[in-house]
Amino acid sequence: MLSRLLKEHQAKQNERKELQERRRREAIAAATCLTEALVDHLNVGVAQAYVNQRKLDHEVKTLQVQASQFAKQTSQWISMVESFNQALKEIGDVENWARSIEMDMRTIATALEYVHKGQLQAASS
Known about the structure:
mainly alpha; Biogenesis of lysosome-related organelles complex 1 subunit 1; 1 helix; rod-shaped
């Protein structure tokens, strides 16, 4: 009877050990699956962040090129406006010069007319 109890006890202990070993392996397998799932999830996020970073880098380069082109174009526009302003100033100078010449010509014409009238009156007298 004692030997039978001992055998039963050893058998139950072996069953428990086997059950415990099986549960340990299942726990290890589940932990491994969980770890792999977490790593895969993180890798997806990291991969997406990498893709987004590459897109941002490309956009930054494009923006830098466009900003440089815009700066050159703006510089050209400023140069054109300055040239236009200078031309307007010159037109104003020419206009003032033309008015001055016109006034001088009127003065001369008036003087010539006065002289011409004086000569006509002297000749008729």
